[in-house]
Amino acid sequence: MRIPAQSVCTAIRDDIVSGVFERGSRLTEEVLARRYGVSRVPVREALRTLEAEGFVVTRRHAGAHVAEPTAQEAADLLEVRMLLEPLGAARAAQRRTEAHLKVLRGLVRLGQERARRGQSEDLRSLGGWFHETLAQASGSPGLITLLTQLRHKIAWMYAVESPERPAESWAEHGAIVDAVARGDAERARLLTAQHTERAIRAHRLRGQPPTVRVSGSQHRVNMAGGRA
């Protein structure tokens, strides 16, 4: 049975994001094919896709390697997120289905419950599912793809500290869902922009000390420590 290149691509991407393949390390078709139990053909296709997404670079006479993004490239991703997530929420207010609302409300209830119990690991997963569902509710395949790629790349480049007040964070999620349910696109956009800006402050570049934070106003990485 032929394994689709998309499945191989997902597996390689997940291993890059989780650090199995370190930045700058070489990715050979033969080794990857053995690791995932596939032929070299889907591996080759997957590497081309990952290169287009920015996870892989091909060096002349050296083959494919895991990309090594700069701090500025990482900071740019957060700025793009600040632009796209509010747009996705506004579109969701116009295009969401009752099924989307049911899932979003269920995630908010679970998030609020876990926040009261202090279950931070569960909150991280629930937050990811919430924003993924909100993107799906936008009904825009291109936007969904961009937001999905952004989440993968940000997870690769940044560690995220748990919010100091998780209950407040989930109250913000709830307010966004209320605006989406009412079809209030501008309110959904505004609330998501405010929520995203606050969330970005908890990001720090992987491999850097906790004092290296992202400025919520300028969206730039302060490599010297403190705030930009």
TrEMBL record:
InterPro entries: GntR_C, TF_FadR/GntR_C, Tscrpt_reg_HTH_GntR, WH-like_DNA-bd_sf, WH_DNA-bd_sf. The keyword DNA-binding applies. One of its GO terms (molecular function) is DNA binding. SUPFAM superfamilies: GntR ligand-binding domain-like, Winged helix' DNA-binding domain. It comes from the Bacteria. CDD domains: WHTH_GntR (cd07377). Pfam families: FCD, GntR. This is GntR family transcriptional regulator. It comes from Streptomyces mesophilus.
